[in-house]
Amino acid sequence: MMAHFQDVSKQSSLHPKPAELVSQYGTAGFRANAKLLDHIMFRMGLLAALRSKKTKATIGVMVTASHNPEEDNGVKLIDPMGEMLLQTWESYATQLANAEQEDLLTALKDVIEKEAINMSQEANVFVGKDTRSSSSSLSQAVLDGVAALGGHSKDYGLVTTPQLHYMVRCQNTQGKYGEATVEGYYKKLCQAFIQLINNKASNCTDDQKHLSVDGANGIGALKVHEMESHLKKELLISLFNDGSKGKLNHQCGADFVKVQQKPPTGIEINPGERGCSFDGDADRIVYYYTDSDGRFHLLDGDKIATLISTFLKELLTQASLDLKIAVVQTAYANGSSTHYLENTMKVTVVCTKTGVKHLHHAAQEFDIGVYFEANGHGTVLFSEAAEEKIQQLAENPGTDDERKRAALLLQNTVNVINQTVGDAISDMLLIEAILAIKGMTIQQWDAMYTDLPNRQLKVKVSDRRVIDTTDAERRAVSPAGLQEAIDSLVKKYKQARSFVRPSGTEDVVRVYAEAEAQESTDALAHEVSLAVYRLAGGVGDEPKPLH
Ligand code: 16G
Ligand code: MG
């Protein structure tokens, strides 16, 4: 045991922490300029080894900063079932990251003691990275950290974030979830996709099979390209922003498209054709098209959740399966989507705080939990009991034809979905399959409901922690008077809603507003921004009206 700590001391001096730098394991791990991350990567290697010893299972470490600019990087830890790191361990991550060089061993021993970790237990860690130029040396630092505690590691090299989540789950279920290789991932998803597509509405032309994909010049592009041969021409992909010339996430990718509400640069797409954008680590996806008048239409996470839950609900009815389905959203979900889901589709809707881990946990409470953030991150979770019921029905020789068809479709839907985390590739295959099976165009999908105009703004304040929220971030409890101010502003407009929350990834307060018309939405967003600026310690110039 002492020998391990000697190794840690020796190795950590090769990954020194810049003095006084303070970092925090945020909503989705650490994220910063890549130059500030080497010591954090090493230390996350150490922490992953400890987490592995504690859980007696394989742990994942993904090096990526998702949709951030190319100069940034980051790291996320993955728990045994492919989920995000347990929240109580996030504070250990922060403690280790911030320990000054000479205090690192003390910080490490503190975790070992608090968690009563048996240091003679083996450690196994899977490591993956995105395409950033800094990712290679940073993932090496993670591997060094694992090795310094005598752990074993497997370096998957370039993979999407959801692919690494998938590998971890495969490994810890002894292959029950699938084969823990990139090939195994393509085989599992594509086989299920092809089986689903076999049920397509009869007259599917090549045009309908065609999809333009914006790879954000990142890892997703590489992996879509790798997967193509498995698709057997059932999906015809034109890949744009494949990383051969453009810069990662620059003027492209899911975040750009969602925030700017316009198509990415570098994509060619005719009116009415489907396009989709991934983010930099391929765990988010949004769809879009341009109509014959040249108007851009975005189909975000809310539209995706609606399409998928409608499809699942129809199959459950056809299969006469009594399984409880729910859709989990955040406060950012467009009010129209919530209204449609609750009143037209009559499904249970749950609202949680922003951040995938919150949605994921809420979705686990149901037989089938469909969760999506409006920004395009999401997936579907099936309880073990639900999967069993579906399988029994599919395999029961007494099942009549209609029920059997529905059960088989459900089974293949389960297999095409990456249940560990939102996955752009897996979501894309499911959406494409649903559209083909229902013989639905993207315009018809878009017409399920009409989004309320909405606007997001940022306000700079001296300390964003003065804003405290409740009710899944929909109401502010501090500073005093802010919620009352928002309430009276909202009352001025029709179908209006607004909330504010401190960002978990940027030093700003985020403002969201929606209302009947774009003009009133923009006015409301501006007025709420002013209220935040005045009541929560705004810095710099006062927010200006949008028009
Ligand atoms: C992170 C979260 C995302 C969330 C966003 C909110 C994960 C994997 N990612 O990117 O879900 O929407 O943070 O950012 O959990 P904000 O707190 O700055 O608004
Ligand atoms: Mg991402």
From TrEMBL:
<feature type="domain" description="Phosphoacetylglucosamine mutase AMG1">
    <location>
        <begin position="180"/>
        <end position="286"/>
    </location>
</feature>
<keyword id="KW-0413">Isomerase</keyword>
<dbReference type="Pfam" id="PF00408">
    <property type="entry name" value="PGM_PMM_IV"/>
</dbReference>
<dbReference type="InterPro" id="IPR005843">
    <property type="entry name" value="A-D-PHexomutase_C"/>
</dbReference>
<dbReference type="Pfam" id="PF02878">
    <property type="entry name" value="PGM_PMM_I"/>
</dbReference>
<dbReference type="InterPro" id="IPR016055">
    <property type="entry name" value="A-D-PHexomutase_a/b/a-I/II/III"/>
</dbReference>
<keyword id="KW-0460">Magnesium</keyword>
<comment type="pathway">
    <text>Nucleotide-sugar biosynthesis; UDP-N-acetyl-alpha-D-glucosamine biosynthesis; N-acetyl-alpha-D-glucosamine 1-phosphate from alpha-D-glucosamine 6-phosphate (route I): step 2/2.</text>
</comment>
<dbReference type="Pfam" id="PF21405">
    <property type="entry name" value="AMG1_II"/>
</dbReference>
<feature type="domain" description="Phosphoacetylglucosamine mutase AMG1">
    <location>
        <begin position="300"/>
        <end position="439"/>
    </location>
</feature>
<keyword id="KW-0479">Metal-binding</keyword>
<feature type="binding site">
    <location>
        <position position="283"/>
    </location>
    <ligand>
        <name>Mg(2+)</name>
    </ligand>
</feature>
<keyword id="KW-0119">Carbohydrate metabolism</keyword>
<protein>
    <recommendedName>
        <fullName>Phosphoacetylglucosamine mutase</fullName>
        <ecNumber>5.4.2.3</ecNumber>
    </recommendedName>
</protein>
<feature type="binding site" description="via phosphate group">
    <location>
        <position position="66"/>
    </location>
    <ligand>
        <name>Mg(2+)</name>
    </ligand>
</feature>
<dbReference type="InterPro" id="IPR036900">
    <property type="entry name" value="A-D-PHexomutase_C_sf"/>
</dbReference>
<feature type="active site" description="Phosphoserine intermediate">
    <location>
        <position position="66"/>
    </location>
</feature>
<feature type="domain" description="Alpha-D-phosphohexomutase alpha/beta/alpha">
    <location>
        <begin position="107"/>
        <end position="172"/>
    </location>
</feature>
<feature type="binding site">
    <location>
        <begin position="501"/>
        <end position="505"/>
    </location>
    <ligand>
        <name>substrate</name>
    </ligand>
</feature>
<dbReference type="Pfam" id="PF21404">
    <property type="entry name" value="AMG1_III"/>
</dbReference>
<feature type="binding site">
    <location>
        <position position="279"/>
    </location>
    <ligand>
        <name>Mg(2+)</name>
    </ligand>
</feature>
<dbReference type="InterPro" id="IPR049022">
    <property type="entry name" value="AMG1_III"/>
</dbReference>
<dbReference type="GO" id="GO:0030097">
    <property type="term" value="P:hemopoiesis"/>
</dbReference>
<dbReference type="GO" id="GO:0004610">
    <property type="term" value="F:phosphoacetylglucosamine mutase activity"/>
</dbReference>
<keyword id="KW-0597">Phosphoprotein</keyword>
<feature type="binding site">
    <location>
        <begin position="373"/>
        <end position="375"/>
    </location>
    <ligand>
        <name>substrate</name>
    </ligand>
</feature>
<feature type="binding site">
    <location>
        <position position="510"/>
    </location>
    <ligand>
        <name>substrate</name>
    </ligand>
</feature>
<dbReference type="GO" id="GO:0000287">
    <property type="term" value="F:magnesium ion binding"/>
</dbReference>
<keyword id="KW-0007">Acetylation</keyword>
<comment type="function">
    <text>Catalyzes the conversion of GlcNAc-6-P into GlcNAc-1-P during the synthesis of uridine diphosphate/UDP-GlcNAc, a sugar nucleotide critical to multiple glycosylation pathways including protein N- and O-glycosylation.</text>
</comment>
<feature type="domain" description="Alpha-D-phosphohexomutase alpha/beta/alpha">
    <location>
        <begin position="52"/>
        <end position="92"/>
    </location>
</feature>
<dbReference type="InterPro" id="IPR016066">
    <property type="entry name" value="A-D-PHexomutase_CS"/>
</dbReference>
<dbReference type="InterPro" id="IPR049023">
    <property type="entry name" value="AMG1_II"/>
</dbReference>
<dbReference type="GO" id="GO:0006048">
    <property type="term" value="P:UDP-N-acetylglucosamine biosynthetic process"/>
</dbReference>
<dbReference type="InterPro" id="IPR016657">
    <property type="entry name" value="PAGM"/>
</dbReference>
<dbReference type="InterPro" id="IPR005844">
    <property type="entry name" value="A-D-PHexomutase_a/b/a-I"/>
</dbReference>
<feature type="binding site">
    <location>
        <position position="281"/>
    </location>
    <ligand>
        <name>Mg(2+)</name>
    </ligand>
</feature>
<dbReference type="GO" id="GO:0005975">
    <property type="term" value="P:carbohydrate metabolic process"/>
</dbReference>
<feature type="domain" description="Alpha-D-phosphohexomutase C-terminal">
    <location>
        <begin position="459"/>
        <end position="529"/>
    </location>
</feature>
<comment type="similarity">
    <text>Belongs to the phosphohexose mutase family.</text>
</comment>
